[in-house]
Amino acid sequence: MVSDTHKTNQWRTLDKDLNRFSRVEYATMHVSRPLVGVGISLAFIVLAALAAMVITGQSPGTLFIVAAAGFGAYMALNIGANDVANNMGPAVGANALSMAGAIAIAAVCESAGALIAGGDVVSTISKGIIDPAGVADAQVFTWAMLSALLSAAIWVNIATWLSAPVSTTHSVVGGVLGAGIAAAGLSAVNWPTMGGIAASWVISPLLGGAIAAAVLAFIKWRIIYVEDKIAAARLWVPVLIGLMAGAFAAYLALKGLNRVADIGLGHALAIGLAVGLAAWLVAIPAIRRQSNAMENRNKSLKALFGFPLVISAALLSFAHGANDVANAVGPLAAIVHAQGEGDFAATVALPVWVMVIGAFGISFGLVLFGPKLIRMVGSQITKLNPMRAYCVALSAAVTVIVASWLGLPVSSTHIAVGGVFGVGFFREWHVERRVRKASMTQPATKRLPPEERRRRKLVRRSHFMTIVAAWVVTVPAAAALSAVTFLVIRALLG
Description:
GO terms for molecular function: phosphate transmembrane transporter activity. It is found in: Membrane. Belongs to the inorganic phosphate transporter (PiT) (TC 2.A.20) family. Keywords: Membrane, Phosphate transport, Transmembrane, Transmembrane helix, Transport. By secondary structure, the protein is mainly alpha-helical. The protein has one domain (about 35-494). It has 15 helices and two strands. The protein has helices spanning about 1-55, 60-80, 85-95, 100-115, 140-160, 170-185, 190-225, 230-255, 265-290, 300-340, 350-380, 385-405, 410-440, 450-455, 460-494, and strands spanning about 120-125, 345-350. The protein has a two-stranded antiparallel sheet. α5 (about 140-160) packs across α6 (about 170-185) and α8 (about 230-255) packs antiparallel against α9 (about 265-290). It is elongated.
């Protein structure tokens, strides 16, 4: 009897010890998981640098090209971790896509956009903000581009760590600005161009937010708040799908097909109109079939927007890959040209291997580090459902077209996040409006105290302030980092 009790106690002791080991093992895995991503990222950066060495061969400028390839790979990883969240966040937050599905679609579409429709050439002095004469010397130009590339990548990395979606293009602009000032002084800056870029900090999110809020208002008053919701959806959802298809067709024609053809705004709008009409005609019977067995309630309406939302997220990613990747790896292409030709050029060709580094870097960055920002944009700013997320995606495409028509510089990052804010603030306004109307018609209705009303805000103010602050300091922060980096490089190599 004593022996059996002793054995039982031994087994209990063994179980406790195993449980302790299991907890330690789980804790170790949890701590080491981020290190796996860092390790894979370092391996990719090293491989990119080695590939550049093999491709460019032994030449006097090989060292600079190898360093630039490493910095370009680092930049691409950070684009994947930060910028792509703006395209996929709303779809994930609305539960139209799983995180794994969003990452897979974004990785494929971003890479396809970069490799298929990425531009043939890129401006070496980003957006024309620096006078080329100030950095015409190939050596000084190389140092400036190295500084711009590294500082932009570091800033986007910091922003990702702070859970703040920022503009990759603005980071590169800031990097070029800082290095240009350090190399040639303040007089080399094209201040009117910089003023336009600064104006886009305000224009992009306001325009994106206003369009997203307007579309949501239309959906509420024309579909949600009518007696027969399904009949209203059969009428208006195909129209919205046609509008989305047309907007994205025009958006892709303007921003994503530079390599295929030079398309002006008029031709892009004509393409958009044709595609939109075709999509509307196809959507009418499709929506009718899908809604046949649906109940007359809001949950049914959400299902009708799920598939169009997934398609719009994929198209946003393709357009982003085609348009923004070239801007991010542009400094690398500029360095390759300067070291190979020994001179400066206002625009340079984008070598295929440079675009490959950008495309694969974005995919790796997205897979390894993207979920953090995707969750942030999709669910932590405001609560999204398929209808609200659809408004954000549609506003992104329409805003780019409107901005192109008006000749305004805009940021796709600011537009998408501004759309999320627009949807959230519209919901707040709408709820307040309903409460005021209820209190007027029913004076006995009890109003919540101010503290409770603030607590129930539908947009998280802490995230709003963090993101806006990050947008405002992006160009100055990247410029300061770049200027310091340039001065260090010149001191070491000059």
